[in-house]
Design brief:
By secondary structure, the chain is mainly beta. About 10% of the residues lie in helices and about 25% in strands.
Amino acid sequence: ASPTLGDLSGDAALEIVAPALDQHVYAWDGDGDPLAGFPARLRERDGGGPIPCSGAFECAEIINTAAVGDIAGDSTQEIVVPTAEFDDNPSAPEPPAGLGGFGGILNNVLANALGGSGRVYALDARGDVLPGWPTTPNGIVPDALPFVGPGVDHVLGNVDGDLKLEAIGGLATGEVT
Protein backbone atom coordinates (compact mmCIF):
# COMPACT_ATOMS: atom_id res chain seq x y z
CA ALA A 1 0.00 0.00 0.00
CA SER A 2 1.06 3.60 -0.18
CA PRO A 3 3.42 4.66 2.62
CA THR A 4 2.37 7.07 5.37
CA LEU A 5 4.63 9.36 7.40
CA GLY A 6 4.17 9.87 11.15
CA ASP A 7 6.12 10.50 14.34
CA LEU A 8 5.81 7.09 16.01
CA SER A 9 8.91 7.51 18.18
CA GLY A 10 7.93 10.90 19.63
CA ASP A 11 11.21 12.55 18.65
CA ALA A 12 9.74 14.99 16.06
CA ALA A 13 11.33 12.95 13.22
CA LEU A 14 9.03 11.18 10.80
CA GLU A 15 8.93 7.41 10.42
CA ILE A 16 7.63 5.55 7.36
CA VAL A 17 4.69 3.13 7.70
CA ALA A 18 3.70 0.81 4.84
CA PRO A 19 1.15 -2.05 4.92
CA ALA A 20 1.82 -4.88 2.44
CA LEU A 21 0.25 -7.77 0.56
CA ASP A 22 1.97 -10.21 2.93
CA GLN A 23 -0.43 -9.15 5.73
CA HIS A 24 2.29 -7.20 7.55
CA VAL A 25 2.68 -3.55 8.46
CA TYR A 26 6.25 -2.29 8.10
CA ALA A 27 7.74 0.76 9.85
CA TRP A 28 11.20 2.29 9.37
CA ASP A 29 13.04 5.25 10.80
CA GLY A 30 14.67 7.93 8.63
CA ASP A 31 17.82 5.83 8.27
CA GLY A 32 15.85 2.90 6.85
CA ASP A 33 16.13 0.79 10.02
CA PRO A 34 13.00 -1.16 11.01
CA LEU A 35 11.30 0.04 14.19
CA ALA A 36 11.19 -2.42 17.08
CA GLY A 37 8.14 -4.66 16.76
CA PHE A 38 7.92 -4.32 12.98
CA PRO A 39 7.03 -5.86 10.65
CA ALA A 40 3.82 -6.64 12.51
CA ARG A 41 1.51 -9.34 11.14
CA LEU A 42 -2.13 -8.41 11.35
CA ARG A 43 -4.31 -11.44 11.82
CA GLU A 44 -7.26 -11.98 14.14
CA ARG A 45 -6.51 -14.32 17.03
CA ASP A 46 -8.83 -17.02 18.25
CA GLY A 47 -8.37 -18.27 21.81
CA GLY A 48 -4.95 -16.64 22.09
CA GLY A 49 -3.43 -18.37 19.08
CA PRO A 50 -3.15 -17.28 15.48
CA ILE A 51 -5.81 -18.31 13.01
CA PRO A 52 -4.20 -20.54 10.39
CA CYS A 53 -4.02 -19.34 6.78
CA SER A 54 -7.16 -21.15 5.68
CA GLY A 55 -10.85 -20.53 5.55
CA ALA A 56 -12.24 -17.06 6.18
CA PHE A 57 -8.88 -15.55 7.13
CA GLU A 58 -6.75 -17.08 4.40
CA CYS A 59 -3.64 -14.90 4.35
CA ALA A 60 -5.60 -11.68 3.90
CA GLU A 61 -3.68 -9.00 2.02
CA ILE A 62 -3.39 -5.38 3.07
CA ILE A 63 -3.89 -3.05 0.13
CA ASN A 64 -4.96 0.00 2.12
CA THR A 65 -2.94 3.01 3.16
CA ALA A 66 -2.45 3.32 6.93
CA ALA A 67 -3.61 6.36 8.89
CA VAL A 68 -1.27 7.65 11.63
CA GLY A 69 -2.33 9.84 14.55
CA ASP A 70 -3.16 9.96 18.27
CA ILE A 71 -6.33 7.89 18.64
CA ALA A 72 -5.62 6.92 22.28
CA GLY A 73 -5.35 10.50 23.56
CA ASP A 74 -1.93 9.79 25.09
CA SER A 75 0.14 12.24 22.98
CA THR A 76 1.65 9.38 20.98
CA GLN A 77 0.73 8.35 17.47
CA GLU A 78 -0.87 5.06 16.56
CA ILE A 79 -1.44 3.29 13.24
CA VAL A 80 -4.92 2.40 11.91
CA VAL A 81 -5.21 0.03 8.94
CA PRO A 82 -7.85 -2.36 7.58
CA THR A 83 -6.95 -5.76 6.17
CA ALA A 84 -8.70 -7.96 3.63
CA GLU A 85 -9.68 -10.39 6.40
CA PHE A 86 -13.32 -11.28 6.09
CA ASP A 87 -15.58 -13.39 8.25
CA ASP A 88 -18.83 -14.77 6.80
CA ASN A 89 -20.44 -14.11 10.19
CA PRO A 90 -21.32 -10.41 10.55
CA SER A 91 -20.40 -8.68 13.78
CA ALA A 92 -23.14 -7.62 16.17
CA PRO A 93 -24.60 -4.40 14.81
CA GLU A 94 -24.24 -1.12 16.65
CA PRO A 95 -27.55 0.38 17.76
CA PRO A 96 -28.86 2.64 14.99
CA ALA A 97 -28.56 6.38 15.62
CA GLY A 98 -30.20 9.43 14.08
CA LEU A 99 -31.44 9.50 10.50
CA GLY A 100 -28.92 6.87 9.42
CA GLY A 101 -30.59 4.20 11.56
CA PHE A 102 -32.54 2.58 8.72
CA GLY A 103 -29.41 2.40 6.56
CA GLY A 104 -27.55 0.71 9.41
CA ILE A 105 -30.34 -1.80 9.95
CA LEU A 106 -30.54 -2.52 6.20
CA ASN A 107 -26.75 -2.94 5.94
CA ASN A 108 -26.71 -5.37 8.86
CA VAL A 109 -29.65 -7.39 7.49
CA LEU A 110 -27.99 -7.64 4.07
CA ALA A 111 -24.61 -8.43 5.69
CA ASN A 112 -26.30 -11.36 7.43
CA ALA A 113 -27.77 -12.59 4.12
CA LEU A 114 -24.93 -11.88 1.68
CA GLY A 115 -21.84 -10.56 3.45
CA GLY A 116 -20.10 -10.56 6.77
CA SER A 117 -17.54 -8.56 8.74
CA GLY A 118 -14.01 -7.35 8.06
CA ARG A 119 -11.14 -6.28 10.33
CA VAL A 120 -9.63 -2.87 11.08
CA TYR A 121 -6.56 -2.79 13.33
CA ALA A 122 -4.95 -0.12 15.49
CA LEU A 123 -1.30 -0.57 16.45
CA ASP A 124 0.92 1.26 18.88
CA ALA A 125 4.45 2.39 18.00
CA ARG A 126 5.80 -1.08 18.96
CA GLY A 127 3.51 -2.94 16.53
CA ASP A 128 1.16 -4.21 19.26
CA VAL A 129 -2.59 -4.26 18.60
CA LEU A 130 -4.40 -1.79 20.88
CA PRO A 131 -7.03 -3.05 23.35
CA GLY A 132 -10.50 -3.21 21.78
CA TRP A 133 -9.08 -3.71 18.29
CA PRO A 134 -9.51 -5.05 15.67
CA THR A 135 -12.95 -3.64 14.98
CA THR A 136 -15.29 -5.70 12.81
CA PRO A 137 -17.37 -3.51 10.47
CA ASN A 138 -20.05 -5.21 8.38
CA GLY A 139 -20.33 -5.21 4.60
CA ILE A 140 -22.83 -6.55 2.11
CA VAL A 141 -20.69 -7.77 -0.81
CA PRO A 142 -17.11 -7.21 0.33
CA ASP A 143 -15.31 -9.32 -2.23
CA ALA A 144 -16.84 -7.98 -5.45
CA LEU A 145 -13.46 -7.67 -7.18
CA PRO A 146 -10.11 -9.41 -6.62
CA PHE A 147 -8.04 -7.64 -3.95
CA VAL A 148 -10.83 -5.12 -3.37
CA GLY A 149 -13.00 -5.89 -0.47
CA PRO A 150 -13.16 -5.47 3.17
CA GLY A 151 -10.65 -2.66 3.40
CA VAL A 152 -11.46 0.98 2.78
CA ASP A 153 -8.79 3.57 3.57
CA HIS A 154 -9.48 5.15 6.94
CA VAL A 155 -8.96 8.75 7.98
CA LEU A 156 -8.42 10.17 11.45
CA GLY A 157 -10.15 13.26 12.76
CA ASN A 158 -11.44 14.75 15.98
CA VAL A 159 -15.18 14.70 15.48
CA ASP A 160 -16.29 14.91 19.12
CA GLY A 161 -13.98 17.59 20.61
CA ASP A 162 -12.02 15.39 23.05
CA LEU A 163 -8.23 14.90 22.96
CA LYS A 164 -8.40 11.77 20.78
CA LEU A 165 -8.73 11.37 17.05
CA GLU A 166 -11.45 9.05 15.80
CA ALA A 167 -10.84 6.48 13.06
CA ILE A 168 -13.41 6.88 10.29
CA GLY A 169 -13.91 4.27 7.58
CA GLY A 170 -15.76 1.07 6.79
CA LEU A 171 -15.87 -1.83 4.35
CA ALA A 172 -16.55 -1.93 0.65
CA THR A 173 -20.37 -1.96 0.39
CA GLY A 174 -20.65 -1.24 4.11
CA GLU A 175 -21.59 1.82 6.08
CA VAL A 176 -19.08 4.41 7.25
CA THR A 177 -18.39 4.19 11.00
